[in-house]
Amino acid sequence: MLDRIQAFLHTLTGSHHTQEFAPDDPRVAFVALCFQVMEADGNISDQEQQKFRDLLRERYDLSEDRLKTLIEVGHQAGSEAVDYYRFTSDLRKHLVNEEDRVELLGILWDIVYADGQRSEIEDHVIWRIADLLGVSARDRVLERQQAAARATLGDQGED
């Protein structure tokens, strides 16, 4: 699963290795959408936070200070947003093929399932994001099912 996350996040990094995170940086858009999903049910669990930080740390190879800055900038952008369009629009510029956009949904579902729970409001948020990214309902549901299966397998591995 980490290979999948790494491959996806690599598509977002491209030539974006600057000191600051620009508002249209796809990494900021990705972090903002992750926060939108994590905050949807009114509770960001420790497991969701850990999964989120792990995937960012693994892929972006940022110092702890830069990682913290990216998270703060993304969280702030998400807090100020009135909808998801800004972020999905930025991501669509960088995720030119459908496979990458579907993979983004898979990662969002992995974050949802990190705490072993899925709420209707998380479903709704991901449905809206999928719609704006142009991902079909079929692919959205398949990614959800695959994330649920990965979470179940991960839980069994911890016993």
TrEMBL record:
Coiled-coil intervals, chain numbering: none
InterPro entries assigned to the protein according to its UniProt record, in alphabetical order: DjlA_N, TerB-like
Pfam families: TerB (PF05099)
Record domain Co-chaperone DjlA N-terminal: where: 28-141
Protein name: Co-chaperone DjlA N-terminal domain-containing protein
Organism: Neorhizobium galegae bv. orientalis str. HAMBI 540
